[in-house]
Every structure is written in structure tokens, then in C-alpha cells.
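Service request form, structural biology core

Requester: graduate student, group of Dr. S.
Request type: structure prediction, single chain
Budget code: on file
Notes: please return the result as C-alpha cells.

Sequence provided:
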Amino acid sequence: MTIPVASATAESPRLLICFSHLRWDFVHQRPQHLLTRAARDHRVVYFEEPLFEAIDNTPRLRLRDDASGVTVATPILPEAATTDVIRALIDQLIGGLRRTELITWYYTPMALAFSAHLEPDVCVYDCMDELAAFQNPPPGLRRYEELLFERADLVFTGGYSLYEVKRRQHPRVYAFPSSVDAAHFRQARAGRPDPADQCSVPHPRIGFFGVIDERMDLALVAHAAAEMPDVEFIMLGPVAKIDPAILPRSANLHWLGGKGYGDLPEYLANWTAGWMPFALNPATRFISPTKTPEFLAAGLPLTSTAVPDVLRGYAGNGLVAIADRASIVATLRASLRPPEPAWLARVDKHLAAQSWDMTWTAMRDHLRRARMAPVEVLQRKGA
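Core staff response, request fulfilled:
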């Protein structure tokens, strides 16, 4: 199991290894935003879940240096491989890297099955979702999360609803709801060429972008499309964990697949409004959709179902309209009117108080303090 560690990125001796259930190249979201910024002053390795391939029964670690400065590490394993094999791959990787500090950063507690032996200087659990509420969670997830709470020096949450649940489980829990690269999405306001796969779609257009899975209310999507035949609905994003055959179909409903993060402003620039037709179920109870401030930065009027964190952060000040099945058609039709300058001014004022740069800077400050005051000390003091 020889690992070519020489390809690992950056020269910083401060190593941050992230264990994630999400593929780096799947959708550009919270992990990519934060770890790209972490890579400015850390050597960052993004350790993905294994791929099981028909190989010569020799486990290996596929390393790739991403343009972001992050090294993506993917275990390539035979079907019969055990967690001991992954543990050995991690040890060889870390052992080949010069480091003065080790930070372990978890998006999935399940990674403890092969990483619990590590002794980091700081252990972080960035809890971006309530994974146990999703369909078919992996066996043992709740127990591994309990173990991660025992080990973690810091717990960050992806929203306030999630914070309210997790803060009772650890003395250092901090809410960092979804943020935004406003400059990137503000490009949509200046007008961009219409992408080839939507340029033939008539106007007006209402669009969605993001992962299409059990969190989407497909019945609501079908209802809106049927009741608004004069409006085109653009749906961008990969389909995950649901059968694509169940997606509703109609002449004014366009499922265009996943798009690169860099291409999104071109799509949004040519929409009239945005919507987030989330189902209200256990999988959405604690989400803080990253796309909420991204739609707003693009200058698009936005309608959402009553997701708690959207209600809390955006509905009360009139930035996002909230609708259910009974009101969705009227609300969407109202969103087709050009946005008022006063609304755009409120949007920009709201977004000025948040950015992924600000989020990472605050997280980095917590990391520095955690090095000086381990969580065990706080627990002994009853903090």
C-alpha cells in the first residue's frame, strides 16, 4: 500500500485532514467554501469515502491536487476490505507528511470507524446536516456521533435550528449558518450570456439549483408547473438517493442536470425569479440552504417553503417569500415582477454582514483558542 505523498498540496506544516461523506466534485457547497479558505494557511487533505473497484486486491489511496489548493484523497479498495485497511492508508498518508500540527475535521461521524486512533491537536465536528434524519442513514450513525461529541474540541453547526439541538451535547458549539460569496453571484445582476441548454426555453423562468433528493417536494413542483403553464421552471442539480423516473414531467418543467459552480451566474442571470420547493420533513427540519443567500446575491426574488432556518433568517425582514401548496401559485406569480430597488438595497445590507471569508476567519479564531484550552479542561470546570 505505497502512497505517493509527494503530491500532497501546500508546504504548510499545519495539516488539516477532513473526513467527509460528500465527494469533493459533487456539488460546491459548505465543505468546499471553508476548506478552500483553510488551504491558504494549512495543508488540507479532503478524505473521501472509499470507492470499491475491481483492482488487483491492492488497496491504494488516489491523491489529486485540486486547483483550490486542497488535496483530495480517495481510498480505492477491493470489495472485501475492512476499516483496518483504511486506517493503514491514513497512517501512511499522515506519516509521509511533515507537520507540526494535526487538525481532524469531520463532516461524517462514520469516519471514526477508521480514524478514532488519531491524536489530533484539535478535533472539529462541522455538523452541516442532521444526517440521521435523512433516508436510510448508515447503521451506527447516532452512536458514532456520540463518540465524536466526546472527542471533539469544537462543534460547528450549519444553522441555528441545528445549533439549538446540538448545543446541549457539547460545551463548545457554535452556529455558523450558510454563508455566501456574494461577488460571485452578483455577476448575475449584470447580465450574462444564456447557456446553450436553456437559451431556447421561453420566458418567464423560475429556477432552482441544488441537489435534487428526498428534500424536494416533487408533488409541489408538479402542482406549480401544472397550474402555471405560461411559466417555465428550470431545475438544475444532480439527482441523488431518489429514482430519476419519479421526477414530474411536463412541457414547462426542465431538468437540466448538475452545473459547475462557476457556471451558475450565467443560468441565474437569465431567470426571472428563484424558488426552493423543499418538502417539510425530517430531512429539512434542520437545513440552512446555502442557495438562499446565493439567490439573493444574484438579485432574484425568492420563494421558499417554510423551512425553519429560512423563516428565521430571511422571511421576517421580507427578503424571502414563504408559500405552501395553497399559496404557491400566487406567490410565484408575484415574484415575476421586477424587484424593487428598496428590496435590493435591503438584500445587499443583509448580505454585507456575511461571507465565507468572515465565516472561516471566525472558525479559525475558535481553532486558535481551542489549542490553548482543550475541551477536557472546560468539561472539568462544568462549562
